Automatic annotation (TrEMBL):
This is Methyltransferase type 11 domain-containing protein. CDD domains: AdoMet_MTases. It comes from the Eukaryota. It comes from Aspergillus wentii DTO 134E9. InterPro entries: SAM-dependent_MTases_sf, Thiol_S-MT. Residues 72-93 are annotated as: Disordered.
Length: 306
């Protein structure tokens, strides 16, 4: 199969339709949970007055199933085969988004904040002895059982700490204080912050990224693997894919997919957040899957040491 930026026409069409399959599955879960609430639990008005609760429950079910199906692909993910004909600076080829994650998370060290870990699919990639402790901020309580079981299975019960909150400062800081982690002005807390498919769903990305930046210690690193808006105005983008992103948003992608947004320019926000300090020490971000509805950026941003 060709790389995601060299798709055949048939592969490109399938790539455009794949998010529709995910959306249909998420919708089905929501309908099922709503029926259970009304006809099994007797909560007749739940679809009207407990929408958020039903959304959380249905998305948790969907995400557990989805991540379990993708887990094997992540475990089998191998570093791309080097091509001696390509310059050393060329980004590695990848066939799916899970291929991007292992080489990025291999860089994690010190005290780590795992943003929105879900069921902990990437936890097997955080076993390095260079990591002292991991704090997983997961607001969806319905995923905590799976997350806790994964930590135990990976031998991280003593190292992985689940925080029942989002990474919005008002929610996160009190939970960090319970862990005896107190943010210190200009000093930060974390050596590594991991963001894997999460910045698409935070309520205010600019504010959240700014708060995460403040939690990084000088010299700390932000490890990123995020899907973004299609760069349709560039040679690497696709007008058709951008149109399909808009269509999926109109059909309820954000509602049924845990507030996920397809149209965020995450790279621009990440680069801008460090401008007050004269920029990042270094930025290594590559783009992938530019012709699809799920183009990705992946790489590392390092905060200035002083």
């Amino acid at each position: 199969m060709a790389s995601a930026d060299e798709l055949t026409t048939g592969e490109w069409i399938r790539a455009l339709l794949e998010p529709g399959q995910l959306l249909a599955a998420a919708m089905s879960n929501y309908v099922r949970v709503s029926f259970e609430a009304v006809f099994q639990r007797g909560q007749v008005l739940a679809p009207l007055f407990k929408t958020d609760k039903l959304r959380d429950e249905s998305f948790a079910r969907f995400w557990v199933k989805f991540t379990s199906n993708r887990e094997q692909a992540l475990k089998n993910s191998e570093p791309p085969t080097p091509n001696n004909n390509e310059p050393q600076s060329a980004p590695p080829r990848a066939l799916m988004s899970s291929d991007l994650i292992p080489p990025i998370l291999a860089k994690a060290f010190g005290i780590v904040l795992d943003v929105g870990p879900g069921t902990g699919t990437q936890m097997p990639l955080l076993l390095s002895p260079a990591i002292k402790a991991i704090y997983g901020a997961e607001p969806c309580v319905g995923l905590h059982k799976e997350l806790r079981a994964r930590a135990q299975a990976e031998g991280l019960s003593d190292k992985y700490h689940i925080l029942p909150c989002s990474v919005v400062a008002a929610d996160l800081v009190p939970e960090l204080q319970k862990q005896d982690l107190m943010p210190v002005a200009s000093q930060g807390i974390f050596d590594t912050i991991v963001c894997v498919r999460v910045l698409c769903s935070v309520p205010d990305m600019e504010k959240t990224v700014g708060e995460l930046y403040g939690l990084l210690r000088p010299g700390g690193q932000l490890l990123i693997t995020e899907h973004v808006v299609n760069p349709w105005r560039t040679a690497k983008g696709s007008v058709g894919a951008r149109v399909m992103q808009g269509l999926y948003e109109m059909l309820g992608w954000r509602f049924f997919m845990g507030d996920c947004c397809m149209d965020r320019d995450t790279e621009a926000v990440l680069r801008k957040v460090a401008e007050k300090d004269g920029g990042w020490e270094s930025v290594e971000l590559d783009r992938y899957f530019g012709r699809t509805c799920m183009p990705y950026i992946a790489g590392t941003l390092v905060k200035k040491s002083t």
